Amino acid sequence: MKKIEPKILKGFRDFLPKQMAIRRKVFDIIKDTFESYGFDPIETPTLEYSEILLGKYGEEADKLVYRFKDQGGRDVAMRYDLTVPLSRVCAQYSQQLTKPFKRYQIQPVWRAEKPQKGRYRELTQCDVDIVGIKSPLADAEIIAIIYNILNKIGFEKFTIRINSRQVLFSIMEKAEVSKDEILSVIRSIDKLDKISIEEVKQELRLKNIKSQTIEKIFQFIQEAEPDIFLRDMLSLVEKLGVPKDFFKFDPILARGLDYYTGPIYETFVEKPKIGSITGGGRYDKLIGIFIGQDIPACGTTIGIDRIVDVIEELNLWPEFSSTNTRVLITALDEFFIGQAIEISQSLRLEEINTEIYLNFEDRLEKQLKYADKKGISFVIILGLDGAQENTVVLKNLRKKMQKEIDKSEIIEELKRNE
Amino acid sequence: MKKIEPKILKGFRDFLPKQMAIRRKVFDIIKDTFESYGFDPIETPTLEYSEILLGKYGEEADKLVYRFKDQGGRDVAMRYDLTVPLSRVCAQYSQQLTKPFKRYQIQPVWRAEKPQKGRYRELTQCDVDIVGIKSPLADAEIIAIIYNILNKIGFEKFTIRINSRQVLFSIMEKAEVSKDEILSVIRSIDKLDKISIEEVKQELRLKNIKSQTIEKIFQFIQEAEPDIFLRDMLSLVEKLGVPKDFFKFDPILARGLDYYTGPIYETFVEKPKIGSITGGGRYDKLIGIFIGQDIPACGTTIGIDRIVDVIEELNLWPEFSSTNTRVLITALDEFFIGQAIEISQSLRLEEINTEIYLNFEDRLEKQLKYADKKGISFVIILGLDGAQENTVVLKNLRKKMQKEIDKSEIIEELKRNE
Predict the structure, then answer these.
(1) In this structure, how many other beta carbons lie within 10 angstroms of the beta carbon of residue B94?
(2) Tally of CA atoms within 13 A in the half-sphere of B112 that contains its CB
(3) What is the pLDDT of residues B30-73, one digit of tens each?
(4) Which of B38, B41, B93 shows the shortest C-beta gap to A353?
């Protein structure tokens, strides 16, 4: 058989044990926080009928959806976000779900974007949403959750920027933007993070918006104030324990997706310098597409991939172990295989993750190097010269210490060193 | 906008909170067991270049791979199993990985099979493999892990059937099956679980195998004995604590996939009656396709979907809660929103998952019904007629009891009822 070059697609990634360990810790923080506020998980399929996904995100995004014909000729598409599938779920099981429905969802999504540093074609989203109620407390809880998660991860300085589509819509109205151009104008304003005001203005002129209208838009944005719903929400955010330094009303925030109808929120991390890592808002009309009547809903996405990248790049968690294995049992002769198994079984009973080195013909140095490379803290050596029949040598690789102990003392000794 | 019918593709599933809770518990048992033997997790992309996946599973399986051209015209395919991606990973990062490489992987795979009860197009596989060593202890550890997982899940009677491709190959040789027909004959024998001996013989005749050869094959299968490697492995399985009733040499076991080279294993669950839920074996030549030299490897897949189906159908875990939320705080007036937030925050600090009912305008019955439907055990009611200013009513919905307690006693009271 001819050799096949082992390679992966651009924008896709393998996660080896060390990265998996960091990812898992981040997921655990996120899940624990979601659950502390009463959210339960759901999962939806990777493939959906294309008509379920398309036409909700806006034209530009629709082109990035992975879409194909399956073996049965069905027009199918890969999950692009977690909000549209949630909306479908809420319509499909509306009788069965408790309302308000507080769900979280952590799954990969696929976007055929140009891959670049920090931007992937396969990425994991962590979404948390409240469906079935239009209360500023719902939006406020989402903001509090974002704050708590980023705080627990260890980010020192970040701002949750908050605006409302209502605020933007009334600015557009006052500036006399025609109804069918409003979403297109908002999508341009959304680019203010990435390009200059002049460039946004230029883009708007290319969209045939009058210069006078453009000037008005920017003037009204500067003068904008939160609406009543947003004011209530901001006051509840504070009551929920989010310090004032960490959130602010920001009328320049627009968000790119078409489906938002009320408050919108986005988090900008300044220290470490990451940029935007959460995005969300209220979308009271999206579920209606599937059920035929409006169902209020709000929520956010948290971009786990950028968070993990930063933890790795800045080595934010230096003490982090790359393995779940605590003990390696080594021996220098097949004769000890029975003893190795016996000790390993007794450690597992005590919930100490234990591995037997599988090739007793390897030299001791090679076996120790294996433990070191994998990140295992303790090595038990059987049958070392000079050791008594009932003793083993226990090596602590972190502290670079070793001693001979009785077999019966192994568990106690390991627990002492936890 | 026209209404879109909310529906999903056949063979694909949504998982709502109750199913997610059962799935998570099963995953936790599986992960904990894998890790107790020194395995660490990895993950690989959903999409691979098609040439990476195709040509390894056999002709019939290749047709079931979801395959399409992406936006850049690349020929891509969706993950079909976890063994081929692992092999690619072992070749691609061979310098970086510790060897033997003990990895586990829990991810969905996609197969365009005819959907039927218990057979899905999107299913989750849990794989555990040891790469880089040809030792019967490696295979034996895989068997011990299977036993421990199924035992912890609560299955009472199951048999891990063990055979070896070597045993089958020498039967084929003795029966004078020509070399290029051997894998095809093995694929037919693999169907003995599902169809009768007569039907298998008929299939072999259609494949132009002589009647005399077919009779010899079945005669030699009956007389077969384990080879040396398998004998060593079976004895180590016993040393690793697997009771004799739970595993056996079974020369009729064939396994469908082409890439196995040594021992093969499959678990048949008899009580509850589920059938085959694990499959694996040794595949010493698969990684070689990607790296140009043989690397020994062995492992198994555990079919989580069938396991979860059975737990649900037979209600094996009746006490299982469908929510992670322990406490619901309800109130009958917006006035209490500050108090509700305060109590919720104090409970979260104690790691008690707490939800505030978000619509204080709803009647109390509706709020209580919400808790009951969601499966929340405790409800704290604020501002109930007759309650003192500093007290709340704490309802235990499971025990159908309630009492008025001082706010300062809430945490203690909840902990007492854990």
Answers:
(1) 18
(2) 17
(3) 999 999 999 999 999 999 999 999 988 888 889 999 999 999 99
(4) B38
pLDDT at residue B275 greater than cutoff 90: no
What CA–CA distances, in Å, run from B252 to A412, B196, B197, B226? 47, 12, 11, 12
Closest approach of B15 to chain A, Cα-based (Å): 5
Give start and end residues of each alpha helix (H) in A77-135. 83-92
Q: What are phi and psi of B144, to 5 degrees?
A: -60, -40
- How distant is the alpha carbon of residue A2 from its chain centre? 39
User: Is the four-CA dihedral A91, A95, A97, A102 of positive or negative sign?
Assistant: positive
Q: Which of A15, A239, A292 sits opposite B341 (nearest CB)?
A: A239
Residue B106 lies in a domain: yes
Q: Which residue of B has its CA nearest to A144?
A: B345
Q: What is the pLDDT of residues A336-372, one digit of tens each?
A: 999 999 999 999 999 999 999 999 889 999 999 999 9
- Residue ranges of alpha helices (H) inside A224-336 are 228-239, 288-291, 304-313
Sign of CA dihedral B254, B256, B261, B266: negative
Last residue of a domain, one of B313, B345, B372: B313
> What's the total number of domains in chain A?
2
Last residue of a domain, one of B289, B313, B337: B313
Same domain, residue pair B144 and B203: yes
Cross-sheet strand order for the sheet of A47-49:
A47-49, A75-78, A67-69
A371 lies in which domain range?
Answer: 327-413
CB contact under 8 Å between B97 and A16, yes or no, is yes
| pLDDT tens per residue across span B148-188 | 999 999 998 999 999 999 999 999 999 999 989 998 898 89
CATH number, residue B350: 3.40.50.800
pLDDT digits (tens, 9 = 90+) for A131-176: 999 999 999 999 999 999 999 999 989 999 999 999 999 999 999 9
Same domain, A299 and A342: no
Indicate the pTM of the whole model. 0.93
Choose among A7, A39, A46: nearest Cβ to B92. A7
Whether residue B280 is found in the same domain as residue B352:
no
Same domain? B212 vs B124: yes
* Residue B243 buriedness (CB in 10 A; 0-12 / 13-18 / 19+): exposed
What are the pLDDT digits (tens) for A169-192? 999 999 999 989 998 898 899 888
